Here is the input.
Amino acid sequence: MSQNVPITIEDQGFPAFRTDLNNSLSALLSINSGSSQPSTMVAYQLWYDTSANIIKQRNADNDAWINLFAVNQTADTASPSTIDIANDTTPQLGGNLDVNTKNIVFGDSGGASDDRLAFGAGTDLSIYHDGTNSNIVNATNELNIQGDGITLLSNSGGEEYITCDLNGAVTLYHNDVIKAATTATGLSITGTAVATTDTDTSNTGNVTLDFGTNQNFVLTLTGNVTLDNPTTEQVGQSGFIVFIQDGSGNRTVSLGTQYKTSGGVNTLSLSSSASAIDVVPYIVSAADSILLGTPQLNFS
Here is the structure.
């Protein structure tokens, strides 16, 4: 360890000159090593602080030291003390990033420009937490998740939501109990499958049934009704239509041309008594062809 300040060679005899020169060279070679700062300091001067094992450089204003490297003399290693990543707007890696058994920690994201893991041009895919929810957002085309087996689990991992097996079933769970699974020939349902039913308590005049939204219909007749041709039915769709007479009764139902009956007529023979309940099954056999079964009359 050596410090020789100031590093100047005075006019002097040779023995003193040699001593002064050797001390100055020693100070330069050891970068002014010592437990306290040199007594004379200049801008950009180097100093190895032996009390903290830090290599420092004097700043341009010559009024403070900048920590450059922390030195581990036992492990014979050094690590940068002040890498200003925060102000480097275009940092780049020269190789793979090894997290050294640590985490990369993101804060809660307040917008597209902060605390997000972003992929692709224009942030095509981003992963972030917004303070309440965790989000995976794909802004371009499809989000593909590939695997020979894929399982969607609860946070604890103790409850399955969806499982997908290569060359096998896609299985849906309710409360960790299997309710639906694909098979080689179709779909297996555990329990019941309930289709949407339209319950309409006031029907008179022209009525168009929405087969795209509903499978079944419960219609209270408050006047004579004509079922107009729908545009939302699908081939293979089936269900039922319940007709309920209001308190007056004697309401009739006429049919659009898409509704077919076994007798080829465009009306239904329904019960006429007040509050009578009739059930008519249907199946869509082809485009614009809704086959109506024989009305089951006068349920009470």
Notes: The longest strand covers residues 216-227. Residues 14-29 form the longest helix (16 residues).
